[in-house]
Amino acid sequence: MRRVALHGGDVTHGDGLELAGRTLWVAHNTSQTISRWRLTPDGGAAHLEHQVTDPSLQIPTTLVRDRGRLLVVRSQFDKGGPMGPGTPEAPFTVAEVRGL
Question: What's the rounded Cα separation, in Å, for the pair 97 and 93?
Answer without folding.
Answer: 13
